[in-house]
Amino acid sequence: MNRLLAVLALLLVCATVIDAYGQNSPPASAVLSPQSIDLWPAGVPADSGDGPRGAERIGQTGSGVGAVSHISQPRIVIYRPLHPNGAAVLLMGGGGYFRIEVGNEANPTAQWLAAIGVTPVVLYYRLPADHWKAVAPFQDGQRAIRVLRAQASQLGIDPHRIGVIGFSAGGNLAGILATRSETNFYTPTDAVDQQSSRPDFAGLIYPVTSLQPPYATTRSVRELSTQADAATAYTVQLHVSHTMPPTFIAHAVDDPIANVGASLALFDLLRQAQVPAELHVFEKGGHGWGLGQPGTLVSAWPGLFATWARVHGFFPGGSGVTPYPLFPRAGTTPNPSTTDDNR
Predict the structure, then answer these.
(1) Whether the Cβ atoms of residue 282 and residue 254 lie closer than 8 Å to each other
(2) Which long-range contacts (CB under 8 A, 24 or more apart) does 334-337 make?
(3) Quick check: bond before 245 cis, omega within 30?
């Protein structure tokens, strides 16, 4: 039943899309049934801890509606457009490494990407708050990129146009995957692990990129702190180099959780390293906006990202589309003042 609802939701969004001029565009391509791939069919790495038992949990109240936790089977869920354009994006919802904002962040973005022909891939990664070791989500993210490359031909994607988009703590995960792709977060075990884990491009949306003062105030810092060197291992700014993929950053000045100063510092380091990078700082928006509610300043970021990705050759050319379909995403606007959203 959940699988059927997911397909219907994507088909509904793909039915009508608004173009950049506010007019109705032709119907976007339909979406095939979602495909779930277990990242570790032989078992998760032995050095990643012993996580939860039992069913996954899905948030039912407040800003956590649709958020997933208690993950014991890390996986990717792929939504394949009927006529894919070859590009793929691995989506990592935020949630302070104690939950994953699938309902408010990953799934709405997947709907938008599928509507423009990009293959969206939602990552269900293990959470340190569920007693996995701090390295577990980075193992899952690295393995996910390798799995996508290994199965690119079967999935109808170009192995050289696989990007990542991460929100908040997911932005931390995406940033580390982009900066530390030459580091094996687990011992390679099969042919899949011979694939490169470097994303071809990266989108960091209100990201938690620093675990060090003065930015060490997020829930992500607390959950990753079980690893002694986490503050250096998982601070994105400390690993910037010229080998990084092109990077897009979007942040709001009034973000009360992930300080915009960290993104400003990261952009300056990218510039110094001569990494192609684009930064959009919005006057207002707070934190946890996902695609952004229609009419808000931050709702411009998906369109800006799509244009940027086209300029770099990751998305095919053509007229732009607005960041959101005619059907707004469900759920309420996240309340950044809540303790649980300190992510």
Answers:
(1) no
(2) 334/63, 334/104, 334/286, 334/287, 334/288, 334/289, 335/62, 335/63, 336/255, 336/256, 336/257, 336/286, 336/287, 336/288, 337/256
(3) no
Could you count the other beta carbons within 10 Å of the beta carbon of residue 339?
A: 6
Asked whether the beta carbons of 111 and 148 are under 8 A apart, the reply is no
pLDDT tens-place string over residues 76-121: 999 998 888 999 999 999 999 999 999 999 999 999 999 999 999 9
Cα of 194 vs its chain's centroid, Å: 23
Residues linked to residue 150 through DSSP beta bridges, in sequence order: none
Architecture, CATH, for domain 25-332: 3-Layer(aba) Sandwich (3.40)
Q: At what angle do helices 107-115 and 2-15 cross, to 10 degrees?
A: 50
**Closest by alpha carbon to 144, among 68, 247, 75, 92?**
75
What is Dmax (Cα atoms) for the chain? 53
Domain-by-domain residue ranges, the chain?
A: 25-332
Query: For residue range 158-172, what is the model confidence (pLDDT) as tens digits?
Result: 999 999 999 999 999
| Closest listed residue to residue 101, CA positions, set 323, 287, 235 | 287
The pair of structure tokens assigned to 170 is: 């997911």
As given in the structure block, the two tokens for residue 153 are 């031909």
- Reduced to 3 states, what is the DSSP secondary structure of residue 207? coil
Q: Rounded to the nearest 5°, which phi and psi values hold at 118?
A: -85, 140
**Residue 46, by phi and psi: left (phi above 0), alpha (psi -120 to 50) or beta?**
alpha
Question: Exposed, middle or buried by CB within 10 Å (0-12, 13-18, 19+), for 297?
Answer: middle
The answer to whether residues 80 and 31 touch, using CB atoms and an 8 Å cutoff, is yes
